[in-house]
Amino acid sequence: MKQNQLIVKTIMVAALFVGGVNTANAQFGKLKGLADKAKKAVQDKAKQTVDGAKNNATTTATQKSSANESQTQAGQPDQGTQDYIKKLQTQYDDANSGDFDQKSDGSYWIWLSSGYGTRVTAQEQQLLGKWYPKEKKLWFSSESFTIADDGKVYDSKGEWRAIIQDKRIVTCAAEELLLDVHDKWIDVRVGQKVIGQVTSDGRVMLGGDAYAAAASIDMRALAFCCFGVQYTKEELLALCAKREKAVTDQQQFEQDNAELAEFTGRVTRMAVRENVEKNGMKGDMDSRDWYIYEETNNLNRGCHWVTMDGIRVVGWNPENNKLLDRDYNWLGTFSGGVLYDRWGVKYGSVQNNVIKNRHGQVVGKLVHGDFTGTYLASKGKFYNWKLTDASGKQVGLLATNASPNLAAVWAFCMFAKK
User: Fold this and answer.
1) Alpha-carbon distances of 60 from 51, 53, 68, 207, rounded to whole Å
2) What is the CA radius of gyration of the chain?
3) Cβ(162)–Cβ(168) below 8 Å
4) Can you name the residues that pair with 130 across neighbouring β-strands?
5) Is the CB of residue 225 less than 8 Å from the CB of residue 144?
6) Whole-angstrom distance, CA of residue 181 vs CA of residue 185
7) Which DSSP letter does residue 134 get?
8) Contact (Cβ atoms closer than 8 angstroms) between residue 384 and residue 294
9) What angle do CA 113, 118, 120 make, to 5 degrees?
10) What is the distance between the alpha carbons of residues 41 and 7, in angstroms, rounded to a whole number?
11) How far apart are the first and last CA of the chain?
């Protein structure tokens, strides 16, 4: 506004100087028109300046937006996306990759394993070695080996340390390992003794230990790493013996547990009246079976008990001569060496150490002596009687501080039915 007033005043002063007051009055109308035009010119100029600033700001913003859009289209995500991608990359770097994934340096890792093909988890010290398939290079225990095309193995100093051939490996200790090559595995021998195996999917058995690696590792290179670098022949043979013992022990453990389960199940069935009366135990007497029968003044619920491996199989009440199963169900009566069932039918007898069936036929005998158990919990324990069949073959052992007749008649007449 002040600028407009200054323009008008300047024009008026000029007019006064040109023609005096009258002339000025005569020209004032024209001058006022000029002043209005000047004022409008100034306003237009100011408006252009403001509009220009707005347009420049809009253009700049549009250009920045276009630049950002151009960057995104060119594969350059915004900062937030970049940060998220970086976070994902950190989660999936070598330290967090799968056990058998190829690492960023092109290597595959060989792990000490807790089982056949399974790495010991969360134990970085169990890393055994690394295999670089492109360079045919092995890293093991801070030393690296390179396998040349002719099979010669050089250490990091370039010295020739071993050789890998189709049927053998000469180790770093200058000893020979023989290879029996199959389609998907290689057996490694010391002389005629197979001391380990390498498979095409990267698994190794060595003594009592197992190693696991990526499937792409060369079998001979893996055999050299696990067998040819760290062990002598004597150590490999010792590991082989360790493995064989471990296998034998495991087989024995499984066999013992299977036998124990079978034995326990059979003894349990022998102690149930339903099975006794259905003759469910026929033919199941075993020479390794052992019975314990004791008579004490402290009766267990009124009974003396015959047990097998701690399981009560039959009880006898001396007050009424009744026989009971483990659940105190009435089986029959035993008196004077003669056994009767619940209905009074004679089952058999034991007299003068001779066992007879219901028909009076001799089916077994009691033999007094010193005998040693050989089976499960009876191993190394002593028994003072043994049960034999009619031919004299042992069908059980018995330890008792009283007459052995109860155990004998029960075993033969109630269960063997011979």
Assistant:
1) 14, 10, 12, 75
2) 51
3) no
4) 109, 139
5) no
6) 7
7) T
8) no
9) 50
10) 12
11) 137
- Rounded-to-integer distance, Cα 52 and Cα 44, Å: 12
Assigned token pair, 164: 């890998």
Q: Which amino acid is at 362?
A: V
**Residues recorded for the chain:** 418
**In the numeric block, which tokens belong to residue 260?**
């124990």
**Residue found by looking up tokens 């009971």 in the block:** 324
Query: DSSP assignment of 329-383, as one string?
Result: -EEEEEETTEEEETTS-EEEEEETTEEEETTS-EEEEEEEEEEEB-SGGGBT-EE
Count other Cβ atoms within 10 Å, centred on residue 171. 23
Going residue by residue through the chain (418 aa), what tens digit of pLDDT does each one get?
Answer: 444 444 434 434 343 333 444 444 444 454 445 445 555 555 565 555 545 545 555 555 555 445 444 444 555 667 777 777 666 665 556 666 666 778 888 888 887 765 444 444 544 457 778 889 889 998 887 789 999 999 999 999 999 999 999 999 999 888 999 999 998 899 999 999 888 888 887 788 776 566 666 556 788 988 898 888 878 888 888 878 877 787 788 888 888 889 888 888 888 888 888 887 776 555 567 888 999 999 888 888 889 999 988 889 999 999 999 999 999 999 899 998 999 989 998 888 999 999 998 888 998 999 999 999 999 889 999 999 999 988 999 999 999 999 999 888 888 776 665 4
Residue 278, burial from CB neighbour count under 10 angstroms (0-12, 13-18, 19+): exposed
Task: Specify the DSSP class assigned to residue 288.
Answer: T
| Angstrom distance (rounded) from CA 398 to CA 408 | 9
**323 residue type, one letter:** L
Query: Can you list the alpha helix ranges (DSSP code H) found in 176-303?
Result: 219-223, 233-270, 273-277
One-letter amino acid at 56 equals N
Phi and psi based region of residue 279 (left: phi greater than 0; alpha: psi -120 to 50; beta: remaining): left
Residue type, 316: W
Cα–Cα distance for residue pair 47/143, rounded to 1 Å? 80
Q: Is 159 helix (H, G, I), strand (E, B) or coil?
A: coil
pTM for this structure?
0.46
- Reduce the DSSP state of residue 174 to 3 states and report it: coil
Q: Where are the beta strands (DSSP E) in 261-329?
A: 290-293, 304-308, 311-317, 322-324
Q: With contact defined as beta carbons under 8 Å apart, do 394 and 307 qualify?
A: no
